[in-house]
Amino acid sequence: MSNKTAVIGFLGTTLDNGFNDKRWQRWRPTVSLGLHDELLVDELHILYSKRDKRLFKIIVDDVAQISPNTTVIGHHVALTSPWDFADVYAELYDFAAGFDFQDSTDYLLHLTTGTHVAQICWFLLVEAGFIPADLIQTSPCSRPDQADPQGRYQVIDLDVSRYDGLRERFEAEKQQHWQTLQANLVTQNAAYQKLISDIEKVATRSTAPILLMGATGAGKSQLAGQIYALKKAKASSTQGKNTLDIFVEVNCATLRGDTAMSVLFGHVKGAFTGAATSRDGLLKSADGGLLFLDEIGELGLDEQAMLLTALEEQCFYPLGSDTPISVSFQLMAGTNKDLRQAVANGEFRADLFARLNTWTFFCHHSKIGWRIYLPISIMNWRAWAASSSSTIDLPQKQDSVMKLLQ
Questions:
Q1: How many domains does the chain fold into?
Q2: Cα 335 vs. chain centroid, distance in angstroms?
Q3: Tell me, what's the pLDDT at 380?
Q4: How many CB atoms are closer than 10 A to CB 14?
């Protein structure tokens, strides 16, 4: 007895759209899967959000008309943003982990529907072996038959041996990223090297917020600067639109009251006593770049609310202004507080913490900070010694001191 065939894919909110009878006169990718005599689909698993429930029901009814032996199964997904790599990958990973894959079923992953981010995530999950499936791509026919509802399909070969050149290029780029991040973070600490490796994977693939947690002196600020350098190098190498400009850093523990609002969000002339001139603010200065808010746990609740708005809506109101300022920046934050406990105590907004907690990394011990900064200082001393013809044996001193920090 031959295996069953199951197709998994997103509901195409644009390409599958159609609520009147004219929908039958054009190609719709999900419906087209049931129109090929040589492709018998036993199960059609469709991922969709609850707001698209009406469209999903129409697709279920239409598939039942053209392919009555196909069972359509819906899966609710809750994506904060279908263009956020971290959010999409996490949701699809959870879906794959909870899916009951059967040995008696051949699976096809439908790539045509969903955002480009979703397509990339599907590919990564298949290539990594989390989803035991081949890829299938549907497309409309060429002109003049472009309106043919059946369209065409192609099963994509995932024999990765065909892509050895691409893999070698990826590995070379990965090694370059590692060297960039390690360049000014010389350390013999295995835990910190693991941290660096994890950050490298995220920093070069995601623009989502990064949260660095650790005690004062653990090297969060230094690490943030190196992550920025890595992100900037990656953005420059792609030669695309997602370039990264300035790096803006502020210690939130130094901000209080109206000063905090003004420093972060700017103000207009006359917004408060002493505001003789307008001020842009750090969020505006960070437009197109990366903003690092160290000790973010010290921000007041009002500033937290405005920061959350700026992150979600990419705009904010300067102090005393009725005109919104549009911004687009990447965010990193550092803290020596347990933000979960701060949320429980009512000192930190739960929604802002959820936004920041996309990628969180921990520097567990302040000793790590010494392992970072001491070698950097020694390298600076070595450079000074070379320029002044000093005969101090710095390498030997470095080895001796580093042994004390093991």
A1: 3
A2: 20
A3: 44
A4: 6
